[in-house]
Design a protein that fits this description.
about 260 residues; alpha+beta; Cyclophilin; disordered N terminus; disordered C terminus
Length: about 260
């Protein structure tokens, strides 16, 4: 399982005039040369951090606990990560957020009563750079309960890269045994926001990952325009002095849960 990057040439046109023989030709006047600019032309600003193109260099160790604020098109929610749950996953997530990998990316797979998935960059060069940047599998120490965040992976060992899902219900009976290791949890009432993400595409957009990877946000905006988007994901603090977060309890019917 898994958010685009011209020069002009000027042609000189020489115009020749025929002057009668009895007319005196005026001496040519040379326009004064304009001083050359000493300021070099600036390259267009990149829409993403260039550091994201070198995954091997982003190896910071995450704090024991830290919090990430997601600002989305449906509202904001905060996630608390506990490194002890899954250290490799916590470190990877920390580095991705620190360098704004998730900014402008979409929640491209929203399956009611199952998961919300994200983690394909809005920018194809960035997605391509991380395609082979895998991290090793690690023990599942927490259950895939509602509200937990877990890295997606294939059936191949050590295949986790950048894609993450948020459990919309308790999926522990089906996912724990497959090696999906939660590393964080949505705080407080944040699941009220998560459960409002547009879900009417079902798994259709999620099955279109190849095109999303190659074409990024431009393709998503045209093909799957109603998918909700991450405006920004930023590290906002830690929870070292707080009690480790627990998965949010299930909401009651009528609490803003999207249509099934």
């Amino acid at each position: 399982m898994r958010l685009s990057k011209f020069a002009a040439a000027n042609a000189a046109l020489l115009v020749f005039s025929t002057i009668p023989s009895f007319c005196q030709t005026a001496p040519a006047q040379t326009a004064p040369a304009k001083p050359k600019s000493t300021t070099a032309a600036k390259a267009p600003a990149s829409p993403y951090e260039r550091a994201l193109l070198k995954p091997d260099a982003l190896k910071d160790v995450a704090p024991a606990t830290y919090q990430v604020k997601f600002e989305t098109t449906r509202g904001d929610f905060t996630v608390t990560v506990t490194r002890a749950w899954a250290p490799l996953a916590a470190d990877r997530f920390y580095n991705l957020v620190k360098h704004h990998y998730f900014d402008n990316a979409r929640f491209f797979r929203v399956v009611p009563n199952f998961v919300v998935q994200f983690g394909l960059s809005a920018y194809p060069p960035v997605t391509a750079a991380w395609d082979k940047a895998t991290i090793k599998d690690e023990p599942v120490t927490q259950k895939n309960k509602r509200g937990t965040l877990t890295f997606a992976k294939t059936q191949m060992p050590d295949s986790r890269t950048t894609q993450i899902f948020i459990n919309l219900k308790d999926n522990s009976s089906s996912l724990d045994g497959q090696g999906f290791a939660p590393f964080g949890v949505v705080d407080g009432n944040g699941m009220n926001v998560v459960e409002m993400f547009y879900d009417q595409y079902g798994d259709s957009a999620g099955m279109d990952q190849s095109n999303i990877e190659k074409l990024g946000e431009k393709y998503l905006a045209e093909k799957w325009p109603r998918l909700d988007q991450i405006k920004s994901a930023t590290i906002v603090g830690d929870a070292a002095a707080a009690t480790p977060s627990k998965p949010a309890p299930a909401t009651k019917v009528g609490s803003g849960k999207p249509q099934q």
